[in-house]
Design goal:
Elements (H helix, E strand, L loop, with lengths): L1 H7 L12 H15 L9 H8 L4 H11 L4 H14 L3 H5 L3 H8 L5 H19 L7 H5 L6 H12 L8 H10 L7 H11 L5 H14 L27
Helix pairs in contact: 2-13, 3-4, 3-5, 4-5, 4-10, 7-8, 11-13
Length: about 240
Amino acid sequence: MFLCTLIFGCLTPSLQSNPEWGFIFNRLEKWRKDISKSEDGADPSVSTVAEFYRRNAWAVLVSTIISLRTKDEVTLTASQRLLEKANNPVKLNVMNEALIAKLIYPAGFYRNKAASLKKIAAILIKQYGGKVPKSMDELLALPGVGRKTANLVLNEAFDIDAICVDIHVHRISNRCGWLLSKTPDETEMILRDILPKKYWKRINYLLVLYGQKLCRPVSPYCSKCVIKNYCAKNGVDKSR
């Protein structure tokens, strides 16, 4: 009970038995379109890379790995620097880890990511003819690739319906009362059951910026929220 209180601010967080998904996504899409007109409304870094490289799976995979625990602006510039030198696994495979790390610095855990990218390049060349696989199981078998990364690659590179759950999607889903979960992976599995498939690809794209700008971890901007009538405010002790 103490853990529930600590995370959600109440012993029994309220849940919506049947969220109005159409209304929720329409409002979020309109908000995203409006804010995109300003400098604060830039697309997520991986989406930007995916668009620039015409959904090239290698570019998307590289950018997604770099993005983990890294700010969008850092991810974008680091991805561009590396991909200019290594726009395919073969070119990256001949690089040493020190150079890869230098190119993606100051991304979080850049040395670990450099090591993972080097290993991934070798695996892709040996097992997949230099191509990025498009199945969840094969992606998860690559070093440094978790469900968030795999789902984002499936979405952005292969246009496959998949739910990418990062900390923003996890937090907002629980805060709004759409579900009750402890981890992003658990959130994904629940959303796969309750969220209509037509919204799977868009939920991460919409909620990342929403979580950064309005639905923040501490003291969210509830007064500006476009879906506040459909939010249970679980765990919100103070808002603006």
